[in-house]
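pinned: reference chain
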Amino acid sequence: MSDSINQGVFNEAVCIDTGRVYDSCMDRDCIENARVYFNEAGQNAVANAVSCKVKDCEVDDVVIDVEPIAFKRGYYSCDLTFYFTITAEITVDTKCQSKEYEGIITYTKKVILCGSEGNVKTFTSTMQTCADDITVSGSNLPKCTVQCVDPVILDSKICEICKCTESIANVPKGVLSNVEGELQADASRGLFVTLGLFSIVQLVRNVQILVPSYDFCIPHKDCDDTIDSPCEMFQKISFPFDEFFPKSCESTSEGDGGCGCSSNSRCDSNEE
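pinned: its structure tokens
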């Protein structure tokens, strides 16, 4: 950081073109009994499963569609479709020989946010010209952004499938590549998972804003191209005392109920 910034010296007011968040919201969704879709091998394993354990769930993609609301000017409907990849460990015989399979969950939701109005068409030098020599202008719709963390696995079960509710389509190719095959919707048994999802949705528009300028962002350190040897790097790692001497229940931090157990382990209670 330069001396002028440290001293709070104002140089000039500059106009920048940047994205402004006009509206945002945060949400906590409990996705109950969502069907996991597998390829043929995975679905056959589910059909003959003795036991099943869901080990991991990741957000692979979110498809976003923004449309103006006709009866409420300046407001927009954001239709969000989440695609999750599930890793399930399935046991298909009494010898407890299990195998991991990848499956897909889809979840859709709608969010209504204020994105203001604008009637300008935006043209930039980076836009491409179509075959009929017409340059495609930028959309006047605000941009919707979604931030989310990988969901929490709350529950899972294998049960019979209600035929009237089964359908899946328009899964992005990048998501389908995780299962290595066509998804099987027609089946008698299925894996259903309940997930907890935290997300933040924003509507953003590009605007010109006048901001105070202090200095240019000039780096104040030289590039370092030195690479330590593996042994030198190892010597810089702190000794893992906690691994050799686990903490007692009384010395654990707050937030685990004083049991000293992680969320994946069982905490025995003294209450009857």
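why pinned: Residues 14-119+137-211 form one domain. The chain has five helices and seven strands.
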